[in-house]
Design goal:
heterotrimer; A alpha/beta (241); B mainly alpha (312); C alpha/beta (227); B: mainly alpha; MetI-like fold; C: 227 residues; alpha/beta; six-stranded mixed β-sheet; two-stranded antiparallel ribbon; globular
Amino acid sequence: MLRLSDVNVKFGKTPVLRDVSMTLPAGQTLAVVGESGAGKSTLIATILGLTKLDKGLITWANVPIKACRPSLVMQEPRAAFNPVLSLRRSILEPLSAKREVISETRLGQLCDRLELPLEMLDRKPREVSIGQAQRAGILRALIAGSPLILFDEPLSALDAVTQKHTAQLIADLQTELGFAALIVTHDLGYAAAFSDDIAVLREGRIEELTPTPAFVQNPQSDYGQELRAAAFALGALEYVA
Amino acid sequence: MTRSLLGLFLRAFVVLTGTALATFTLLWNAPGDPALAIAMARFDAVVPADVIDLVRAEAGLDAGFWAAFRGWVVPLISGNFGNSSVTGRPVWPDLASATSYTVPLALAGLAIGLAISIPLAVLATRHPGSWLDRFAVGIASLGAAIPAYWLGLLLILLFAVKLAWLPAMGATTPSHVILPALTLGLGVAAALTRIIRSGILEARGQPFMPALKRRGISEHALAREHVGPHAAIPVITVFGLELAFLLEGAVMVEVIFGRPGLGSFLVGAIEARDFPKVQGVVILAALLFVGINLVIDVIYRLIDPRMGTQNA
Amino acid sequence: MTLSVSGLSAVRSGRTILFPTSLEIEPGARIGLVGASGSGKSTLGHALIDTLRAQGSCVAHVPQSPDEALDPLRRMAFHWREAETALGLPHDADRQQALFRALKIETGDLRKRPWGWSRGMQQRFVIAMALIGAPNLLVMDEPTSALDPIVAARTMVLLEDYLAARDTALVLITHDLGLAAGRVTRLLVMNAGRIIEDRPTSELLAAPRTTQAASLCAHRNWLALPC
């Protein structure tokens, strides 16, 4: 279980995360929604250990988060890969750093599940579509075998249909492999459809943390209400007769 | 704005102090006995040892490094460049007169450089990849590859020797500045043309340009109000660096054309081991450099106020 | 007056990215131009703008993000004046005030440059600027994707309120049928450089004829809640 207790992060004198506490049980999905500048990216960087904590504690299974080595899926699929290396080299890099190998059969299986032809891995990031590049990014995160994967706006570079398709792929893989997913997104629709809990982040603070079905029916905070109304206004959520 | 300006001044101060210290250290540690050199320059004969010691004491060379450094820097702050250790006369009048030859030459070179490079770059970028564009880039590369002394000699051969239109050596009439300025200007034009050209192309590639065109803004207004300012930013950046080249080039050109100025002033001072004069030239050059870079930084901030703020 | 264009097409590096297309747009129409990325919808939008403008219609364009609409070195007041000049209009402070009020950006400081404003305000400024000439047609290319949802929703509502009483037609280009479905009455579905369906919104949502349209319809929202 991922546990953030009372996490505070400051950039200089400006607080960016304030008293953030949340838990994410193994195998489950927590969506963190909020506007740009709310501290979503800082939250990811903090869990990855890239930012210094001003105060607080982050643990996985009651030991400091470092031991868990969470993986990351980034927002811009193509920028997430070294442009001159083949996707395969980039994807296998975290393994070779740990002097581990993966059997070609296993790699083939994962590619299959992600609907990536195995030979596509020999291409460079520019030579595949954005959707394919993002699925390769997910593959890289999976291969490290971490029990926790962080998703930083994983769908925002994709078009509406590909978004839903990719979200379903992630969810299916999660059922199969059992990793916990922390998804940072501005899209409440995605959060509503694919998470167990929704945390609303605003100006560095957790405004509310509610089980997703309850949130979809009726968010507790005013700001949560606004986000929900906007999701309906933009057609991300819809009422049907 | 006030804070960033303060930062600029602090930077200028650090650069000037560093230059002063570095120059002084270099000259202090130069091989050979400076007192002997001064004495020989002054008396032009074999000098007895006690005279050399006298010179050493008079020039403050026996007081130790820091004392000598202080003895030079403290008056300098109030604008006193000290006295020549060879002639004993104040450095400043000679330095000022040398500067009054060099600065107009540098400015004329710059004006010629801009007058050539801006139209050439604008013409070249009208149709990127066209023969005109390739011609301009080729000329610019060629110009950058030709050293000033060679170009200077070619110009002398053509305009002074063959055609006899212009005087070659000296600085007695205003027309004497034409050939040196042209030599300098052509070198400047070569460097600037490439910078301005790529600046314009980069500015045209800015993400908002298509939408401005689609808004119905005329080509002319687009070029003047949007491409121009964006292209100016890299050009101004390089300009600060180009300035060093300009001063250096002016010094070289002066020597080629036998003009009085900082070039011959500096060469003479070095040959005579006239420390105060050498230091004077270096400090003056550093002052000019810092001053102009300060102005450039301010212009920067006027064009793009994001510079030096968190928004940058 | 109905806007009408025919034979719009586009070729880029030897490949046809827009096949000859004709289109009629009624005054005050609300049209959604939807399709996957690379289907040619932005290309059609641009061709539409250029052609109609060449015919003498007043057509305005709002790009995806304010970064693609505003020069960061120029003040907001300059952008506004420039847009007026481009339309051949004199400066009119009342018109400006009215548009600013309609889009709720009257508090914005026009002496500032774009980056001195929030992105939501910048985008509404761009929309206000597009409305200066009371255009026959407003083409918006993914107008909400660079904005946070709350700001995006508010922006669309303000714009729709403003357009409600006017003859300006709206073409909304988006990959997200869900965004378009609630705000347009006619949908154009694009695929591989062609319009493959052109039907009233309710009809298309109820019974899409092509697989591409069916896929867009099936994926138009994340979650459908019972009323």
